[in-house]
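Page 42, continued from yesterday. The earlier attempt failed because a stray header line got pasted into the input along with the sequence. Redoing it now with the clean sequence only.
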Amino acid sequence: MSLFNSSINIAPWRELTLFSAYRLFLAIILFTVFYLKLPPEFLGQTHPQIYSWMSQFYVLTALVILIITAQRWGRFESQTAIQLIVDIAAITIFVHVSGGLVTGLGLLLVVVVVAGGALIPGRMAIFIAAIAVIAVLLEVVYSQISGDNETKYSHAAMLGTILFSTAILTQVLSKKIHDSQELAAQRQEDVNKLAVLNEHIISRMQTGVLVVEPSGKVRLSNQAARNLLGLSQLSMGASLKKCAPELAQQLWAWTQHQADAFQPFHARDYLPQILVGAMPLDSGETVLYIENTSAMAQQAQQLKLASLGRLTASIAHEIRNPLGAISHAGELLAEAGKDDQNTTKLTDIVLRHSARVNGIIETILQMSRRKKVEPMVVVLAIWLEQFVEEFCEYKQLEKDAISLVITEPLAKVYIDVGQLHQIVWNLVDNAWHYSDADKTLPLIEMKLSMPDSEMFIDVIDNGPGVSDNILPDLFEPFHSDRQEGTGLGLYLARELCQANGARLNYLPDDENRSRFRVSIPMDRQESLQ
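This time it went through. C-alpha cells are written below.
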C-alpha cells in the first residue's frame, strides 16, 4: 500500500477521535453545569433525576467511545453511525428533561449532523439527519401528549429544516474538501517522487554537487563531490571550512566578487585536480559544481594518443624498415671501424637512438593495442615478494637493494595481474634509475599498507626527488629528463591504474624522497572469496 493510500485511511479515524474528544468535553460540561448549578438554570429543570442519571451515563459512554475510537476497533462507518445515533438519543433526552426545544439545546444536534456529513458522506449522512429530525418530532409529540399545551411544532419544523439543510451543505463542502485533500496528497506524492528522482540523478552524476548555506554549512552533497574532495562522509550541517578549507576560501572570495575566485586545486595530494563553479539560489544558498579537470584533460590526452597510436600503427612498418636498415648499417660500421675511436662513438650514438626510436614505437603500439582488463584475485604480499625477486634477478641487484615492508600480509585485491606487473615494473624501474647507488642500501623501498578503506603500494627511492620544473608534467607523455627515456612509463602506469579502478600519485615522503603511490579503493573491489 502506498503512502498516499495509508494517509487516506488514517485521516478519518483521526477526525473521528477528535469528535469523540469533543463528545467527552460536552458531556463533562453538561454534567458539571448541572451539579454545580451554574447558568443556564434550565438544564434538568423538568426532570432533574433523569438528567442526573443521563449526564453521568453520557460522560461514561463518551469516555468508553473515545478509548474505542483511539484503538480503531471495528469498521469505521459502522462505529461512526452508532456513535452519532447515541449522540442524537442522548441530546434528545437532555432536551426533553430540560424543557423542550425552546431551551435551544436542540441546536446541539446540528453539530452531530455536521459530523455525520463530514465523517460518512453520502446516504448515511442523510440517514443520520433523518434520525435527528425524527427524534425531534418524537420529542415534540411526546411533550404534547404528556400535557404540555404550548405548541412546539414550529420549533421542530425550523430545527428539522436546519438539520437537513446542514446535512446537504456539509456533504457538498465535505466532498470538495475531500477532493482537495486527495489532490493535495497526490501533488505531495508527485513532489516526493520528483525529489527522490532528482536525488537519484544527482547522486549518480559524475559532476560533484554541493549546496552550501550562507553560514558555510553543507546542506546537500552527492557521492561524486565526496569522492573528489576525499571525504568518505559529509553529513548535513558539516562546516565546509573544516572539511575543505581551500574550497571554503575560494567560495568566500567568490562571495566577495573577486575576479578568478575559483582556481584549479587538489583537495588532497593524492586526488585529481578539480575546478569549482558556483550558482546562487533565491533562498540564499549556493550550489557548487565540482568538475574533475584531470579527467577532462585525461580524456583529451587519450584522444590525442589514440590518434597517435593509429597513426603510428599505420606507418610502423614503413618506419621500422628504414630504422632496421639504419641500425644494421650502424652495427656493420661499428664492426668495420672498431679500431677507430671516433667511428665507435658515432656508431654508438646511431645504435642508441635507433633503439630509443624503436622503443617509442613499441610503447605507443602497446597502448593502442591495449587488452581488455581481466581482473582476478591477487594476494599482494606473496605477489610483491615474487616481483622483487624477479626484478633483482633481471637487473642483477643484491637482494638488499629493495626493501619490502608489508603491514597487511593477507591483503587481497581484484585486479589484472599482467597490468599490475607492468605498473609496478615501470615504477620500480624508474626508482632504480633515479636512486643513489653511493648511499647505503636499500636503494628502493616498497611498502604495502591499508590505513583506512584503501590499499596502498608505495615505491620510494633514495634519490634526490623530483625537481619542481619536472613535477607539473610528471605524468604527461613524452616528458622525461632521462636521456634514453621515452617519457611514457609513468603515463602508461597511471593509465593502467585508472583502467583497474586505482590511482597513481606522486607524494614526497617526510624526508622529501620520491614516493609513487598506487591507491586501490577497497570499496570498489569485487567480492573476494
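Notes: The chain is about 60% helix and 10% strand.
Reminder to self: strip header lines before submitting.
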